[in-house]
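Observation: inputs received (chain + phosphoenolpyruvate).
Thought: call the complex predictor directly.
Action: predict_structure
Action Input:
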Amino acid sequence: MRKPLIAGNWKMNHSPSKAIEVVKDLLNKGPIPEDVDPILIPSFPSLYPLYQELKDSKIQLGAQTMSFEDAGAFTGEVSWDMLVDVGVKYVLIGHSERRQYYHENNPEIIKKLGKAIENQLIPILCVGESLQERENGRATTKVEGQLHRVLKGLKPEDMEKVIIAYEPIWAIGTGKTASPEDAEEMAQVIRHWVQEIFGEEIAQKVRILYGGSVKPENIKEIMEKENIDGALVGGASLKADDFYTLLELGGQK
Ligand code: PEP
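Observation:
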């Protein structure tokens, strides 16, 4: 059984003081549902203050990216051990906004993935097609290509640790959601790809998330799908009320 996971990616929103306020509010909503893995992914300056707030809670912290270098003269970068030191357990790798605005490419993504795995950070690898690729009937080819380039070289025991987030680029922050059927179809394609390369046992263990305008109103029908094990949520994770509802509904798979 794969445990549902709901991750809130706050992107470049919420200052540390606001982040603390939102987290306090979230913890006051009630107990965090048992049947879901809850993750918050705030901006770097909020990680340490949130680590202090969340020490005794089930909510784990994630980072939005990290360097593939260990340390040194890399201005503006953040290393894996800085993240581990402030209690981070998960790291987003290859989010489409990183690929699009910061030109993160597959060779870099491969190095980041390796660095995360080597240092016990759980990578959430983001893949997904553009609107043009979907309209041209190339969505599957695009996603399979991304998987192939980035994951093919992993050892099976490392593949098991990777979480894959399917995020169609046209659905991120746009209010447009892939239909639950389309999201499930791609999750199936992804699981099938993992099975072909790494075998059935690992394919059944790997968690696949859907991301793209997930909100309290649509999470239930997405989570009902067999191959979708959770959601990566941007906008709707920013408010404590909505995120708490997402955790409650996400756990009812
Ligand atoms: C995301 O940032 O990964 C995302 C899916 O954003 P949103 O939920 O706002 O579409």
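Thought: report the result.
Final Answer: The CA atoms of residues 16 and 49 lie 7 Å apart. The pocket of phosphoenolpyruvate is lined by residues 9, 11, 167, 172-173, 211-214, 232-236 (CB under 6 Å).
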